[in-house]
Amino acid sequence: MRPTTVVGGALTAILALLALPAAALAQDAPMLESVVSELNVTWVLVATVLVFFMQAGFAFLEIGFSRGKNAGMGIAKILVNFSIASIVWWAVGFGIAFGGDGVIAGSSGWLFQFGRDVAGEGASGETASFFIFQFMFAAVSLAIVWGTTLERMKFAAYIPFAIVFSAVIYPLIAHWGFGGGLFAEFGDGVQDFAGSTVVHLTGATGALAAVLLLGPRKGKFGSDGKPRAIPGHNMPLFGLGVLILWLGWFGFNGGSTLGTAGNSFAEVIAVTNLGAAGGVIGAMIMGAMKQKTLDIGMVGNGAIAGLVAITAPSGYVEFWAAPIIGLVAGLLVVVCVLAFEKKLDDPVGALSAHGVAGIWGTLSCGLFASPRLVESVGVGKAGLVYGGGLGQLAAQAAAVVVAFTVVFTLSYTTLWIIKATIGLRVSDEEEDAGLDISEHGMYGYPEQFIPSAELVGYGGGPTATIPPAPVTAMSSQEMSV
Amino acid sequence: MRPTTVVGGALTAILALLALPAAALAQDAPMLESVVSELNVTWVLVATVLVFFMQAGFAFLEIGFSRGKNAGMGIAKILVNFSIASIVWWAVGFGIAFGGDGVIAGSSGWLFQFGRDVAGEGASGETASFFIFQFMFAAVSLAIVWGTTLERMKFAAYIPFAIVFSAVIYPLIAHWGFGGGLFAEFGDGVQDFAGSTVVHLTGATGALAAVLLLGPRKGKFGSDGKPRAIPGHNMPLFGLGVLILWLGWFGFNGGSTLGTAGNSFAEVIAVTNLGAAGGVIGAMIMGAMKQKTLDIGMVGNGAIAGLVAITAPSGYVEFWAAPIIGLVAGLLVVVCVLAFEKKLDDPVGALSAHGVAGIWGTLSCGLFASPRLVESVGVGKAGLVYGGGLGQLAAQAAAVVVAFTVVFTLSYTTLWIIKATIGLRVSDEEEDAGLDISEHGMYGYPEQFIPSAELVGYGGGPTATIPPAPVTAMSSQEMSV
Amino acid sequence: MRPTTVVGGALTAILALLALPAAALAQDAPMLESVVSELNVTWVLVATVLVFFMQAGFAFLEIGFSRGKNAGMGIAKILVNFSIASIVWWAVGFGIAFGGDGVIAGSSGWLFQFGRDVAGEGASGETASFFIFQFMFAAVSLAIVWGTTLERMKFAAYIPFAIVFSAVIYPLIAHWGFGGGLFAEFGDGVQDFAGSTVVHLTGATGALAAVLLLGPRKGKFGSDGKPRAIPGHNMPLFGLGVLILWLGWFGFNGGSTLGTAGNSFAEVIAVTNLGAAGGVIGAMIMGAMKQKTLDIGMVGNGAIAGLVAITAPSGYVEFWAAPIIGLVAGLLVVVCVLAFEKKLDDPVGALSAHGVAGIWGTLSCGLFASPRLVESVGVGKAGLVYGGGLGQLAAQAAAVVVAFTVVFTLSYTTLWIIKATIGLRVSDEEEDAGLDISEHGMYGYPEQFIPSAELVGYGGGPTATIPPAPVTAMSSQEMSV
Amino acid sequence: MKMVIAYVRHEAFEPIRTELLTLGFPSLSISEVKGSGRQKGITERYRGAELTNYLRPKVKIECVVASKDLMTIVDTILKHGRTGAVGDGKVFVMPVEEAYRIRTGESGEETLQAHPDAASAAAG
Amino acid sequence: MKMVIAYVRHEAFEPIRTELLTLGFPSLSISEVKGSGRQKGITERYRGAELTNYLRPKVKIECVVASKDLMTIVDTILKHGRTGAVGDGKVFVMPVEEAYRIRTGESGEETLQAHPDAASAAAG
Amino acid sequence: MKMVIAYVRHEAFEPIRTELLTLGFPSLSISEVKGSGRQKGITERYRGAELTNYLRPKVKIECVVASKDLMTIVDTILKHGRTGAVGDGKVFVMPVEEAYRIRTGESGEETLQAHPDAASAAAG
Ligand SMILES: Nc1ncnc2c1ncn2[C@@H]1O[C@H](COP(=O)(O)OP(=O)(O)O)[C@@H](O)[C@H]1O
Ligand SMILES: Nc1ncnc2c1ncn2[C@@H]1O[C@H](COP(=O)(O)OP(=O)(O)O)[C@@H](O)[C@H]1O
Ligand SMILES: Nc1ncnc2c1ncn2[C@@H]1O[C@H](COP(=O)(O)OP(=O)(O)O)[C@@H](O)[C@H]1O
């Protein structure tokens, strides 16, 4: 409560103000239940904020892997798409994903308003926290889609896809995986704690549809059909993106407990970190074997792959399994990037790091899910190594296949329609000039593209503004003559 | 408690240590009140940390919008000003803002010390959290002032203004708006949940005073009086700034609940995100209409404007109003940037994004404040759309006018005195050379300003250090000859 | 709990889900103790996440202070070393540091598993949070070591040192300072709240060993033996690093309360901010006196030095002491950077900012520790200014000497062995070419190192792909002819 | 044919380019150079050490013209390049033996600058 | 001896370099220039103001060869540099009076390009 | 008048500049070029694909002097530029027909370098 109306004496007044919530509760007989609820919401909102920051992570991962002439667009793209998704999720997506009922989709919660569709006052803040937390997941999934589209997609084409994806495509899968829909029917339920399939495979599948319809960047494949290197312009900014994503993932997985009960989120966070570490080490090893050097981008992709893979199992596996799951993801991501590179132009490795690692992570639950945690979460069965049988693995595989098929069909169709109407791709000339100048009318790094003589010219002609002795020494110094 | 003194057996020792706080409380009969208080403080401190990070947001927004020759100064400026404000707020500002009593100013709390002016031990940590949380707001307001001063203001001139602003100017307005002072007298109190007026308009008003006294950058206006483009050097870093600000704003608005009571902070955060999204979309639409392209900087300004506008109403409005408030802010910011650009040189758009949007946000409470939330917060009346009448709108407008007048007068006077004594502006030659080299004796990007032959020369002459076959192949490769 | 299995009607279903934790607790008779524990863990995990982000802070501080040809390596280095340390800490380090018992080292907790070595189920989440929080400290200490090794150390040499450091060197000191080991025997115990000695001096001591064995970068010292400037390439990225570190430090010091009991973490955070501010101001003053300009890097070093110095006393001193402790650290860091610069090549100032400031911070407890806080924490005696005598100062000094001696010996030996086997330093040619291309086979900023004609060439030859009128106007414009 | 090579201040370039365009000489090339002459250097101070930068940035203009047009170019550069302060730069004239337009393969003086109505087209 | 100075499109450089190498002329230097000619500029719009960029990036090739080899170089550049669109660039030929190889201090035409078996070595 | 054009290693520039200054020749211009010659390239590996960089960075020095001073300049460059390894670069001498000092409009040899006491001033 903002203490605008209370005027007290000296600092004691402030203390009184600060004591108000407690006092108020004391009057209303502070219930332990409300504290429990507020603590859960506190954690969920901290996690929400962390997951929000992943948008910056994706933006900088993409910017770092783009050429300088396309660097500014990464900013406009993330801001606009995230904003459109915010509104669409509020209007439609949240209802489909979590508007209760139905194997296929929810059916209420449109234009979500506080206290409208809900029973009691006390629960409303919780719903609001759930609404915004789950939105951040939708936004992550959408951001993953763009990974394959760098440096050649029309800005105008992003917008309709963002609308469809956050209104329908992602909410459907979220309903199935998180909202009690379809995947709950597979065996004893599909284990996807924070969304290796729901969020990451969904995003990567959209990205696959996009790359198939877009085709490679100019010059990606030589006349001999072999892939050529198109180096991203800024490894430090790429690394910033990876580190921000790693940070955000603590909220992504850790927040998926939806509260603090039993302190299980502590385990989830520790397991997440071990998975990511395994991914880096896996990519380092495979990179050294395959490429003979320690490719900076591959190591970063390894971190992402480890994080994506540990996402589904993060609430289901013991510590010992996490480095293994991550390591395999790291090995896989390098092999897949090198393999996909031969035919598909995926500048950031989204197909490998989110797609393949997402599949592996989902399946790994069927191998490593521990009885203790399966019981605690209450979904599915223990994994193979605990003698849980092949049933869970089958349920996990079914979810992968269903999610992939549905998302691919819907995304491909949507993008095909966009291609047929407004078009997906900028012209060759615009691609050569770069999207910053051709789509945004400005450079991301103007001083690197505009001759400095022309920039300075804008400072006024020399006769007018330059004083008699224009460049003087800035501090004590020797003369060169 | 740092467990330095306890030695136990195996890991159980650690567990015992960790159980200590609970155990200690158990001995002292753990009171629900203390948990409630600690939970409130936890949230306020999380918010504090998020708002702190907004300093990085402002720094990078400014750096991105500066030319490369002035990029390093952004770092020195933010570190030094934030530090000076930290000390001054502790010594003086906090007392004026929140030292109790008085319509105009507080009168205690100087050199704020723990447990000195306060009644009980238990409350002291709460006061400390309030002290540091509120400081971060003062620091945000100060950072906004600098937005119009880029690329031409003397470093030495920042320091006295930072002292006066954080000792007196901001604390006065904070006292009126947040500390129970003047604005509580306007009608049933002015609704400014997190400070559209108190923080943002205050900062932007200082920025207006600064730009009037400083004048435009060299070359900003052509000999025909028309504005010329002086493109900022780095749109990715600008975007980083915007994304960090958006992140920090979840703490800025969300933390202004000062606790978790009733989970209202969840609503505030959801509303904040919808407002920001509306701002981006508004700026995109108006930008496309006015400029025919999607200006990257304008989209970022739209995000900031949406966030500034939703700041005052974030605790007072329902979800549906947030995108509208943001959208209007986004439309306004583009119109105002283009209009102000004609006469004032405001490189980051601070006057529009913080000033105009701050006014709009403050007024929007008078339109959209919902009875439910007005009752819950306990300040003011419901807005026009709920049939609340014009009274609240008048109170809001009065606050805007009073805050603007007082801040403008004090800031202009302070800066005028600085101008008359140490001077506000660097010389023309220093401006041409850039503030990095002229004010800091070094470049922000040395490799872009120092010829590489001169940099390399510092590595020693060739005869001394270059081996017979100096540049060898780094890995297997073909010869060019 | 991920609500995959529950299907309800409309949004009420979601609410039911969200109410589940509370409901579950209600059934099990929700105990206040479990809420207290969960709140502690929530804060510790928030702090964990903040301390994690310090990795990005160190990476960008180092990248900013490196030349562009070595900028990419900073990313690979931080990802790989952090990952290796994650696994090693889990396998070995945590056991040595906190595996109970023993003056010298712990003896259990290897391959740390949930609920294995621990008594009750309830405590396990707490242990997991402690495990991951303490790991982040180990990772910070390791990151500090690298500060002196920039731009010349072999990538392969980092890995064995990271293993030894996170398996043995850091865990030993952590055991002594935080785990109830050796330092608890010194007087009434050594006061090192968050690790000025345990974390920062340990890291800086490793860094000293490294710089002695590595020698300076080529060209650092002229033929006259005088140091030469080798300017880091990017002050904005350096500043980003500093701001992220400052942010993370709120978790570093604030989280070292290991919980929210008595709201003491609020005080710690406020004190931390005042210390950092003092550091900036100290460095600004001394920088202006010694160098006549406001060196951007020095101001940033001042912030770090203030933060390092306030780390040990942050739980022991009153507000008034914090700016003093920070100020002295800021003055010291400039003097020391300039002094060390004469003989040692420490590109980021790690020896001064973490080493000297770490020593000063540890000693400052003996001067300023307040009786109130000493009692509350329960370690050591009050400081000199409170009439606490010289005893505590002696204990603090003893810890500094012991930590320095042991860490130096172990680090020097480890690095010596690495030097003798795989070698520490790249060849002169590789150093000239830069570590990015020579160690990673790629540039951090390819467009700045590869001629654009060669990059474009990869886009295909002109006859094949260039259309008849290749570069057209992007928007309405005048012709230049 | 002659190549005029001029080292000028950055601020001088835009007026030179504009006037040459008006006079019918749109074709030229520029590049960034660092020059040493009478002008003072700048000292960067970095963590206690110094680094003096003796070279100052200049724009190098290269413009090939028919011999008869030489003095028009030189005079335009001299006119707009002059501030009277140290560091204004130099103009050099070098002989050119042949010129080819790549687009058409033509050679000779007529390839050097744009078609005669260049100036009027640019003005429109 | 002649110095061939050519301003060409970026895309043209790699084919030119490759063919010159094959023909036994590996030695040349390039730099980034911005050129003005018949080609149009690009307008950047920034916060309501405009900034037109009249100069377009080109690669400048400098290659010194013995007079007898001159036309081989010129023809190779003309061949690969041509797209037929405005902006293809120019080739100029300038006299060179002397040449020195720094490594050995030798002077004369034999210093200009690599040893005769250069092309075959490169191919290997 | 002659223009000396030299392509040298970056490390060689500072000693050359310093000695020329001492000898009374402070005036020159440099730029960054990428050169191809006998020197090997560098291969960048990026996500499984390769990109070979055949050109290596060099500094290009341009210095116009009176014909009588030509060999002083050339010898200074040869002396400091030599490491004996492939990649040391070349020096070319080109004729210059006229020179103008923009600041004063003067022309002729006396505009080329700074006043005679340049060296001593610099040393002071
Ligand atoms: N002899 C020369 N050779 C090459 N470049 C020169 C020569 N003389 C001057 N320059 C260029 O002209 C620039 C300005 O020359 P300077 O001597 O400072 O000016 P002024 O003409 O006022 O004496 C130098 O920075 C350099 O780039
Ligand atoms: N006379 C000239 N002097 C110097 N550079 C020239 C000259 N003419 C053309 N150039 C260079 O060649 C480039 C292409 O020339 P342009 O006139 O556009 O092509 P085209 O040969 O098709 O008419 C220009 O951008 C400029 O760099
Ligand atoms: N004929 C030439 N024309 C233009 N530049 C040349 C020529 N020969 C050499 N260079 C320049 O000199 C540099 C070094 O030449 P290189 O042949 O490698 O050295 P070396 O003299 O040791 O044989 C090249 O990278 C190039 O920049």
Description:
The complex is a heterohexamer, with 3 copies of chain A (about 475 residues) and 3 copies of chain D (about 120 residues). Chain A is globular. Chain A has about 475 residues and is mainly α. Chain A has helices spanning about 10-25, 30-65, 75-100, 125-145, 155-175, 195-215, 235-255, 265-290, 295-310, 320-340, 350-370, 370-375, 390-420, 430-435, 435-440, 445-450, 450-455, 460-465. The longest helix of chain A has about 35 residues, at about 30-65. With about 120 residues, chain D is an alpha+beta fold. The longest helix of chain D is centred in the first third of the chain and has 13 residues, at about 10-20. The radius of gyration of chain D is 18 Å and the shape is elongated. In chain D, about 65% of the residues are buried. Mean pLDDT of chain D is about 90; it is low at about 115-124. Chains in contact: A-B, A-C, A-D, A-E, A-F, B-C, B-D, B-E, B-F, C-D, C-E, C-F, D-E, D-F, E-F. The interface between A and C is large, with 118 and 102 residues.
SSE blueprint and pairings:
The complex is a heterohexamer, with three copies of chain A (481 residues) and three copies of chain D (124 residues).
Chain A: H1 10-27, H2 32-65, H3 73-98, H4 124-145, H5 155-177, H6 196-214, H7 235-254, H8 264-291, H9 296-311, H10 321-340, H11 350-368, H12 371-377, H13 391-420, H14 428-433, H15 435-440, H16 446-449, H17 452-457, H18 462-465
Chain D: E1 2-8, H1 10-22, E2 28-36, E3 42-46, E4 49-53, E5 56-65, H2 70-81, E6 90-95, E7 98-101, H3 118-123
Antiparallel strand pairs in D: 1-5, 1-6, 2-5, 3-4
The structure holds adenosine-5'-diphosphate (3 copies).
Low-confidence stretches of chain D: 117-124
Q: Say how many strands of chain D there are.
A: 7
What kind of oligomer do you see?
A: heterohexamer
Q: Given the structure, what is the number of helices of chain A?
A: 18
The tally of helices of chain D reads 3
Biggest interface found: A-C, 118 and 102 residues
Helix content of chain A: 55-70%
Largest sheet of chain A: none
Number of strands of chain A: 0
* Rg over alpha carbons of chain A: 25 Å
Instruction: State the helical fraction of chain D.
Output: 25-40%
Main sheet of chain D? 4 strands, antiparallel
**Which small-molecule ligands are present, each listed once?**
adenosine-5'-diphosphate
